Amino acid sequence: MFVPISAATDSSLTSVAAAVEQESAMSQEGDAPTTLGADSVSDEENHTAENSVDESDEENEPTNGDNSVPGPPSTTIQILRTTRLLFGPPVGSEDEPGSKVRQLLRLCIAPPDDSPCPYQAPRWPMECQVSPGRVLHIDNPPKSQELLYVASGYEPCPQPVGEDEGTVVYQYLPTSAVNYFCRSSWDGRGVQDEVVYPSLPAPLPADTTLKFDSRFESGNLAKAIRISECFYELHLRSDLYTGRHTQWYYFSVENMRTDLTYRFSIVNLSKKDSLYKHGLRPLMYSEREAEETGLGWIRSGFNIAYYRNTCYEDDDSDDGGRSYTLTFNVKFDQEGDRCYFAHCYPYTYTQLQDFLATIQEDPFRASVCRQRIFCLSQAGNQVYMLTITERWPTLTPEEKKPVIFLTARVHPGETPSSWIMQGIIDYLTSQEHSAQVLREKFIFKIIPMLNPDGVIVGNYRCSLSGKDLNRQYRVVVKDAFPIIWHVKTFLRRLVYIFWQPVAA
Hints:
2 domains, Aminopeptidase, six-stranded mixed beta sheet, five-stranded mixed beta sheet
């Protein structure tokens, strides 16, 4: 969308988009801004009626004499209340150390000493279990081209048999008393292995049972059934608060043996057609391999087949109750390893925050890219907006710049969009001549992750509302779809304040 605007007034525009909470109290007269490293909290006291969103519709945060919300058990800092949170000073301006700001309602985790960008731990629905520690993957795929799988036509196509002929060795189905989102917390409700492993204890070293887990950011695996020593039937979890959309998978496997060839069958996929029919292979990541050789995600598996189940019906399917199976063989190179399998290269909410921190740590990139909190999601996760343009001192008030508005990751399972958006941001903030020309001609407004809640919990398509956000732009209920409401308000304000004929 291109809307010509005055570059001199872009600062007020971004404050419109970043108005995330109603002001419920003013700070005391002697309060000063709390800063962390190079970060600063900026406040604009002199908003006019025509350059700020009507805040009468903003939600009131409950307070009990204390404006802070309990955070995770880690080092935290109290941020001051404001309608905007800057990850750096406004482009082309200098902060005033004694400026008055208002207290923020949120607590942010203090970043490492070498990171000037504050970030917030992911917030989960209360019914979710979250394994301790963060899952980290190195970004180093093979240098050589990975070939597609060429089917021979003789691949085994086992039919699902379920618990009647197998043993459940992993089961994780987050449920609540009501089938809709109620509240969130920093780490869900903790880890309860007796729920995850109902039939077997944690595998002993001599045991040959694989140990599965998906209770981490973006993870998705609902159940694993051991059919034989080397054959496992896997069931994916549908999007939270729905009974549909089973396509994204991301889980870990431990306790493997190198002398066995394993077969995994994911039996409740919902898509009638799939790239697995045309040579796509599942992704695998080995922690041992990454540590020893520096190799990241690789395409793996053989005897790959994708087909419709003939004797199994599942309500998760979009195709008349029928489900589809992805089956493949895999061999592990090292024992005592922990391997991950995924539908596409994962890109988590925390990974996005890490990338935004690297942008802010680079002096040049930070000078042309301003990061703000655009709004909060249903679960209270921060939605970020980036403003990328050439340095303000090079502009004159008379100059007009069109706005290019970009968003990504409205569907959590479509991780390639995040990788593409990361490449766009990396390019637009670079010192390439063509990138500089673009920054001089345009103002880029970018929301790199529209659906952080869905990304965090491992959904494929929906947010915590149980709906596809890409189909909700006609809805006017803010509480149901807060991110879409803020996007519409922002774009409407762009058109309302700076309306001129759209450039051809």
